[in-house]
Structure formats: structure tokens, C-alpha cells
Amino acid sequence: MAESEPTEGPITAEMRAAAQALGWEEDLLDRAIDWGYSPRTVVSALGTKLAPAQAKSFLDREPLKPDLTWMDAPTEWGVRAEQADADMGLTVGDIMVGSYGEIPDLWTDRTEIARGSNPQVGQEDMGYTIFEKAVVWTDSVADLYERAIRDRWAPATDLGWRSLEALPDEVEKAICQVMTEHSERAYAEAAVLGRWLPEISYGFVEMKLFMSSVIYDLARHAEAFRKRALSNGGGLGLQAPTDLIRGATEARTYPELMAYLFVQDSAFLTFFRHAGDIAQNQLERDLYALVASDRERLMEYQVERFEAFLLAMPDRREEQQRYLAKAEVRLAREWNDPAVREPLILLLGGSRENAAAGEAALTALRRRQVEEYLGHLDQAGFIRSRLHSGLAVYLEEPETAPA
Prior knowledge:
The chain is mainly alpha-helical. The protein has 16 helices and no strands.
């Protein structure tokens, strides 16, 4: 029905005739206008040919009258969060007060309800599969998240790109191969973690916030390594091996995923801590240091989560032995890949002619990685029953280590 020009106020004669033909109460149109309905809304209602009872239900009520029942939600009231550290500001940890800071061992709500709010009936299942606190949680996640957002950095502006100078071709190629590898690895780990984030119930929101910051960190690492490969006259190299991350991608449970990533994250943290030995300039030293700082937070989570998991579920220790063994064999295989091994030998030795010194330095680095990996497990209260031979070989005396 087209809206006619009004003849007496906002209600036209045509509107009244249409209402009468439908059997509506005589003064229903006037009441609707008084309640605040627009003439266009009334015309629309007439056009749908509502039955009298439907029209009265729709138009004979105040549309903007507040309900206010939401104000009576039986949640904890009167809570005042206070900053524990003036320099940090109001942190996620600071607002974990009263009932809002209580993390249940088992979160049973399957909706996207914020922990501490009052549920509404009929909300949709969000498809979460992880409800046990011990599987994902450590008490440090709120602090780790705050540190992550406080210490964030930008590859575009926090690295001195204009300071780069030309390097010998073989050195630049080796650097670009290392950068290609770690750009791909960072992106792949971010993608794997991103797929698991929706599986974790919203009751563990602080952990989800931290894991979101980890994904962001890894994406930034992928960006920074790629930029270095393309910023100094070189280019991307050969694709990195994907054996270890493939295992993580195929993990069927979060504890299995974390076992694979524990091995990888420990090895990478050690590598970036000591990558100054292969850096050719200040930009690379800065890049490795920034990445190492981000990965230290991730390793803190790994160690503390693993410790809490083992305390809560000691019967799953043997399961973890199996997962770690599968990850170790994949890591050892990747370390022997020429695209991983040879660029590091060249950079550690300084040139292809000094390969023997470079290989000795790489063996020392691998030994340090294995030792620190076992140290991280020890911090979590876990002892490997049998370290895979591909890693154990680096703990042998130098004269028996591989050439």
C-alpha cells in the first residue's frame, strides 16, 4: 500500500478505511501513533493485512517502553578492581577478583557466555570441545598476556632496515634460506594454534587472550623474517621441512598438540637466544633478540601448563612420553635436512671454505638445544624415559659426535 498524504494529522482517510476493512478497533491507529509508531510503520502493518488480534498485539503497546529485567541479573555486584602495579595499569589479572576470578576445574557451559555473567535460556552451543582446566590452564596466563601486549614491537619500524649493507652472495643466500625457513615455520605454528583456539571454552578467557597474543607474535615473526629475506638483494630460498609441524597439525588432542610444540618451541627458543652467532649485522641481532623475547613467554606457558597438567592428570605421563618421542624423531630428521643444516654451517663458519669450524659450531648449538629442551622438561617435573637417538647423539662427547 502506498502511503497517502494525510488529511487529518498523520493518519489519512485511506488508512482508516483500510483498518476498518480489516476489522481493526476504531481507535487502534490513533493509539499506535500516540505510542510513538511512525505513520510508515502503521501503513506497513496495514499492508500485511494483520488480523484484528494480531494488529492489537503489534500496535497497542508502547514500543520504546524499557523492560529493565536485565538490571536484576543475579551476578556479583559491588566489585572494584584495583591496579596492583601502577606501571602496568589495570591488567587482566587485576580484574580476576571475587567470583569473576574463580576458574572452575570443569567448565560446563557450551555457549559463549562471559565467565561470571548470568546465562540466558536458549543460547546456542558454540562447539567447544575443551572444558577441563588442567588441559590448557596455567595461573600465569593473565600476566603472560599483559607482558605480550606491553612488549609488542613492529617489524616495519623497530628494525633498522636502512642500515643493511650488501653481503657476499653465499652469505646472503644462507641468510635468506634461514629467513625463509623461520618465516614459514612461524606462520605454520600460528595457523595450527589458530585452529585450536575455537575449541577452548570461553570459561578460560584469559588463556584464550594469551594464545591470541601468541598467534599475533608468530604472525609478526613470519612477517619480519620474510622482510629480511627480501630486503637486501636476496630472495626467498627453498621451502622448509614440514615434518614436525605436520605432526602438530595432525594432533587429535590439545595435550598431543602441546607435546609436539613443546619440542619445537624449546628448540626454537634456544636457537633464537644464540642466533647472534649467525647474525651478520645489527638488524639481524635485533630481530633474533626480539623473537627470542616473544618465544620466552610462549615457553613459560608451555612449561607451566605441562607441569599443571601432569599434577592434575598423572596417569597421562606415559602418553606424553609417546608424543614427545614422535616429535623428537621428526625434529632430528629436520635438523639433518640440507636446507636446514648447511646454511647454518656456512654462517657459523663464515664461508664454505671454513665448513669444518661451522659444523663444529652447529654441533655445539644442537647440543645446547637438546640440553635446554631436557631442562625445560625438568622444570615441568618430567623426565624423558628415553631420549630419541637422533637428539641423544648431540650429548655424546665431541670425539664421538657426528662430523
